[in-house]
């Protein structure tokens, strides 16, 4: 008979496999709660549909080099047709346009091509390893663009949905807004329209252009032509001139901006020698995100 001070014997142990039942139940409960939480969050923020980059239209741009355009004996009556009879062709770009995504931008660009408004106008700036600019507005005799009077105003330039595509690789075609036309008096013209465009040259992406310019197409054929244009020598100011210009801009000197208009200009006269629309049997091609 045991003493009254002796503690009672411990209860018999349950079989070994019963020890893990509470932890298993707890784990299952946590997993279920996590699943329910993730399900509820996914219903609160449904995935965004992919951007419609179906190619609805195709246009072409032919580029050439003119060796005589800036010759010293040129007169005001001289134009590309009289000065560039012996121009050297660089080649053709075929561009696919995203007409479902940005219809106004695409419609205006097509109009500029089919009306020959881009024809005999200059590639006016090249940023090596990034992009080149064309379609600058101004005086036609200077190789700049004259916009058709009936060209629609592009309200997509203030629509955030039009800026969602990125400049992710070479051959991206974009309506140029961030680097648009240097002179303020051009922009203040009541007939001003956004028609200046850029094409990325690579080799890498240009994230600095994202959310500032409207991507509306892609180069389908002629990336070798893009590479040729990108390799043309440009005017580069000396570092001392850049520093002086930065100081002048800081002090509010308007001449600083005027001086920068010649920076990055090609040292050869590259121009759009022809342009237009390409009619195809099936205008809608499979989507191709840039």
UniProtKB/TrEMBL annotation:
Q: What GO CC terms are in its UniProt record?
A: chloroplast
Q: What is its EC number?
A: 5.2.1.8
Q: Which residues form a coiled coil?
A: none
Q: Does the keyword Isomerase apply?
A: yes
Keywords tagged on the record? Isomerase, Rotamase
Q: What does this protein do?
A: PPIases accelerate the folding of proteins. It catalyzes the cis-trans isomerization of proline imidic peptide bonds in oligopeptides.
Family per similarity comment: Belongs to the cyclophilin-type PPIase family.
Q: What is this protein called?
A: Peptidyl-prolyl cis-trans isomerase
What species was this sequence derived from? Dovyalis caffra
